[in-house]
């Protein structure tokens, strides 16, 4: 879909109070602070999406101090489209603000045919980042991630590729995503020995997916690596949107690739309803409570949300108004989600 510029979008000038509207946390033991809420472009920025909305989302994000935009080579559809569309909007609105932005990309999932377009080889990661930079029209990304562990490529090769990318000046920092605690320790050690610290880990983490809690969060804390939690709203399940049926515009109905109607079961909805009641008692929307629940833990540097409208983003930003929970509230939440 084309962006209908001039009519909808006068020349962009970022809101002068943007840095008073957001809170920031230091990312591990590094010089970088990240907004406590970051914006991901996995969905809603592909060629089948309404990019007028996309551009409004990006502008609103930055106006509210969201300085971090997260992408990956394969975000779309089709693969690469989110980076291309982001690049177009970046050139229109954000070039003067480049030094105020943390833009990330990743490689690790299926991208192009043949043995060199997937997983964690040096060949794939370096070629993929070159293509990402060309699509976005950037000289460098701020963070480049290994998007997932590769069981067959030596970890030294994958981490060596990240190190090489930093040496080449194509990324300022590197990170890993979806690595378990043991592999994370090994990866961080290898990177450190090469002189490239691991800035950040991007795991999936929400009230409904707590795999990071037994060891990963502590491991990252000890190693001085930041944590950015993805899919904090379980792709929209942890909001009030599915409580009265399946909205036509929702991801489960409109997209269905990673979240389908089958995921919205009666037992899931029962929990969502109970959580929604608790959120209302706190004076928050469920989305706000779900984000606040993650941010109550200071080891979580940032929560990486996706949104299909600027309105949703504003709803999410307001979660920062209250990220404290009483013991009673935490116990109640625990009872519902266990
Ligand atoms: N490293 C990885 O492997 C990996 C994997 C997945 C994602 N990610 C990153 O994490 C980012 C976020 O993932 P995600 O999109 O799954 O996150 P999410 O925040 O859990 O889900 C986003 C969806 O929730 C709904 N939503 C958001 N705010 C809402 C609100 N206030 N009220 C009602 N509904 C709301 C919207 O759904 P509707 O579209 O239905 O309106 C939105 O598209 C991605 O963009 C990507 O950058 C990384």
Give a quick set of tags describing it:
binds NADP nicotinamide-adenine-dinucleotide phosphate, 338 residues, globular, TIM Barrel, 12 helices, 14% strand
Mean pLDDT: 96
Please tell me the CATH architecture by its name: Alpha-Beta Barrel
In spatial order, strands of the major sheet run: 3-4-5-6-7-8-9-10
Q: State the CATH class.
A: Alpha Beta
What does this structure look like?
This protein has 338 residues and is α/β, with parallel strands linked by helices. It is 39% helix and 14% strand. The protein contains 12 helices and 10 strands. The chain has helices at residues 5-8, 51-63, 81-94, 122-136, 155-167, 181-194, 216-223, 251-254, 266-282, 286-295, 310-317, 327-337; strands at residues 24-26, 33-35, 37-40, 68-70, 102-107, 141-146, 171-177, 198-202, 226-230, 302-305. The strands form 2 sheets. It has an 8-stranded parallel beta barrel with strand order 3-4-5-6-7-8-9-10, surrounded by 7 helices. Strands 1-2 form a two-stranded antiparallel ribbon. NADP nicotinamide-adenine-dinucleotide phosphate (NAP) is lined by residues 40-44, 70, 147, 177-178, 202, 230-236, 239, 241, 250-251, 287, 304-308, 312, 315-316.
Describe the structure in brief.
The protein is built from twelve helices and ten strands.
């Amino acid at each position: 879909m084309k962006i209908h510029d001039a009519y909808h979008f006068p020349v962009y000038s970022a809101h002068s109070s943007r840095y008073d509207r957001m809170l920031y946390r230091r990312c591990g033991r590094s010089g970088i602070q990240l907004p406590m809420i970051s914006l991901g472009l996995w969905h809603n920025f592909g060629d089948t999406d309404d990019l007028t909305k996309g551009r409004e989302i990006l502008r609103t994000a930055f106006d509210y101090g969201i300085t971090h935009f997260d992408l990956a080579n394969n975000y779309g559809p089709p693969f690469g489209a989110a980076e291309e569309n982001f690049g177009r909007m970046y050139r229109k609105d954000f070039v003067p603000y480049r030094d105020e932005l943390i833009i990330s990309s990743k490689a690790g999932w299926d991208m192009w045919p043949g043995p060199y377009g997937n997983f964690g080889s040096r060949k794939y990661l370096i070629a993929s980042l070159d293509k990402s930079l060309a699509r976005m029209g950037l000289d460098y990304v701020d963070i480049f991630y290994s998007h997932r562990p590769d069981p067959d490529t030596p970890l030294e090769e994958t981490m060596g590729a990240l190190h090489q990318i930093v040496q080449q000046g194509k990324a300022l920092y590197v990170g890993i995503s979806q690595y378990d605690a043991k592999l994370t320790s090994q990866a961080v050690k290898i990177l450190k020995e090469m002189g490239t610290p691991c800035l950040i880990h991007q795991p999936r983490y929400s009230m409904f997916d707590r795999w990071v809690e037994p060891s990963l969060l502590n491991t990252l804390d000890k190693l001085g690596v930041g944590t950015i939690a993805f899919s904090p709203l379980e792709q929209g399940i942890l909001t009030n949107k599915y409580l009265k049926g399946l909205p036509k515009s929702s991801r489960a109905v409109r997209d269905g690739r990673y979240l389908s109607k089958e995921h919205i079961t009666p037992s899931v909805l029962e929990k969502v309803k109970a959580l929604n009641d608790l959120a209302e008692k706190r004076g928050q929307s469920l989305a706000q409570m779900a984000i606040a629940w993650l941010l109550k833990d200071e080891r979580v540097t940032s929560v990486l949300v996706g949104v299909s409208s600027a309105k949703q983003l504003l709803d999410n930003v307001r979660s920062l108004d209250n990220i404290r929970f009483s013991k009673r509230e935490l116990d109640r939440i625990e009872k519902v989600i266990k």
